[in-house]
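# step 3/5: fold
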Amino acid sequence: MSSEVQPPAGDEAAGPVPAVTPARVLAGLCLAVPIVATLWVSSYTKAGPEIGGMPFFYWYQLLWVPVSALFTVGAYLLLGRDEKARKAARGGGE
């Protein structure tokens, strides 16, 4: 099985476009970081330090809500840029 996407018929000059690119790998890592950080519960199962009377266990999880959004936006932008590069490599902005 090949890890390259074949160009449409009649576009042999452009050559195959790799399916796995550094931007796609980085986007995957951006999506994996918040998942791993919140599923690794033993890293934050403690009461201190407290912020505003809220135990660490709770504010750590709440902190990951906006941080996860930032990572998701980063992955979205990386994939959008990668898709533009893939279209250009295929030989047109169709």
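# step 4/5: annotate
The chain has two helices and two strands.
# step 5/5: archive (pending)
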